Amino acid sequence: MIYIDVKGEVVASGNEWLYSWYGIQATSPSQITRALKGANGQPVTIKINSGGGDVFAGCEIYNELKSYSGEVTIEIHGLCASIASVIAMAGNCKMSPLGEIMIHNVSTSTSGDYRDMEHSVEVLKKANKTIANAYILKTGMSEEDAYKLMDKETWLTADEALELGLVDEIMYSDEKVDKSLLNSLKNNAITFCNTVGKIDNNLLAKFKNYKPKINHPVIKNNNQDDFLVQKNKAKLQLLKLKGGIQ
């Protein structure tokens, strides 16, 4: 069994270096693609603890997992929110009794006149439809029910997620979902962002243009202290760019 982490912010390929530089966990499609290629068809377990992130990056990860030639098992170990919850729909899903799933609408920021606003509304609605498809395919729920969950920004415990069919099993338990029974009960009874928190895109752009004067610790007399001082200065500059300090 090969274990692959989906932890921290879900980011577009090429942005991982910034998060890694500051010790912030992040996962990109390219990282998952490399890991799956390395697994070479062997069974993989995807361990999720993520608040979400970039919609298109998350959808790419979902597609990579769905098209993988081997068996894919998803394990939700903690938070599985936003686009991370879409990734969780890509395989047989187990959830820790200590975990939570959060489902909500796609969001973005925009500016302009009323035409720009109306255009953004239409684009967001289509993005929501895209996201909803993952929940519908996994559970068999109606599009209307998926939209209701997203509109409410729904937080689900393991038991609640199991009842809806979003997960197949609660970890450390023998309880498994009977999807046919759940469907029967339901029939008889009645740049986008999809994330909890992330580094702002404008900040990312500013930081990419910022070039701190950091001397490589090996090149400059192997001075680790100097490297750490310069790294802390870079962190301070990042805070200034973010507006956290004056």
UniProtKB/TrEMBL annotation:
Belongs to the peptidase S14 family. This is ATP-dependent Clp protease proteolytic subunit. The keyword NADP does not apply. GO terms for cellular component: endopeptidase Clp complex. PANTHER family: ATP-DEPENDENT CLP PROTEASE PROTEOLYTIC SUBUNIT. GO terms for molecular function: ATP-dependent peptidase activity; ATPase binding; serine-type endopeptidase activity. It comes from Clostridium chromiireducens. InterPro entries: ClpP, ClpP/crotonase-like_dom_sf, ClpP/TepA. The keyword Repressor does not apply. Pfam families: CLP_protease. CDD domains: S14_ClpP_1. One of its GO terms (biological process) is protein quality control for misfolded or incompletely synthesized proteins. Keywords: Cytoplasm, Hydrolase, Protease, Serine protease.
